[in-house]
């Protein structure tokens, strides 16, 4: 088996006091990859003219879109859960309004500074052949060259591994989890430009939580829960030493369940898709992330 090198770079991050208020990074996040880009939208008018060429080209508005993929580690920054979900001490759960972030991108020849970055979704996942990671999708106001000095950065720890996770369904630990994934979608309003070229705000609306698990098919317990439309609690606990990262979904329903067989020499893998929900929003939470 060959060795793998994972963290390929880093970004600087900061929680903003108000939307696009700026400021220097206060923390750094090692990353696997990032793809943050500025989009400029122009008006190309199809005028009635004696020409076969495109005319126009006036700037309408600009915006930032993209994603950052990073390992979730014992000592990693908690700002992602603060800005992407909400905070109550070290327990993060659905909260509105959400804060925006400053993100500085290490592009070697010319770093980029982005402000007014809102997290549109967080996709947390682990698998037998991969560490625990998160893909944070970003919608932002704009970016510029970053001229401040960027210190060298070493993460100091590495991401949780899938085999450091324990998984519970309805309070009982299950040992046949091959993959686990949960997605938090903040359903951002991305078109609030009014009469400005840059977004004046990017508010988060309804929070929707979905996910899936792939299990080694050993019994029909989960399939029966799907058939009987049972509501269950799911929990994933990743721990190393005194540190842990826990994802808790108090109520989920299985949306579909399949046990395909690929061939005579293959095992049967059970794939379950689920959606988290609440019955009483005043007392219940669709998702909770606990960092210790």
Features:
17-stranded antiparallel β-sheet, globular, mainly beta, 292 residues
Which range best describes the helical content: under 10%, 10-25%, 25-40%, 40-55%, 55-70% or over 70%?
Answer: under 10%
Count of all domains: 1
- Compute the number of strand runs: 17
CA gyration radius, whole angstroms: 22 Å
Structural class: mainly beta
What is the global morphology?
A: globular
| Largest pleated sheet | 17 strands, antiparallel
Strand content: over 45%
Order of helices and strands: EEEEHEEEEEEEEEHEEEE
Assembly state of the chains shown: single chain
Number of helices: 2
Mean pLDDT: 90
Q: Give the N-to-C terminal Cα separation.
A: 33 Å
Q: Ranges with pLDDT <50 over ≥5 residues?
A: none
Concise synopsis of the structure shown:
This protein is mainly beta and 292 residues long.
Describe the structure.
The chain has 292 residues and is mainly β. It has one domain (9-40, 60-291). It is 4% helix and 48% strand. The protein has helices at residues 79-84, 221-227; strands spanning 9-15, 27-31, 33-43, 58-71, 91-93, 101-105, 112-127, 130-140, 142-145, 165-169, 172-174, 177-185, 208-216, 232-240, 243-258, 269-276, 288-291. Strand 7 (112-127) and strand 8 (130-140) form a beta hairpin. The two termini are 33 Å apart. The mean pLDDT is 90.
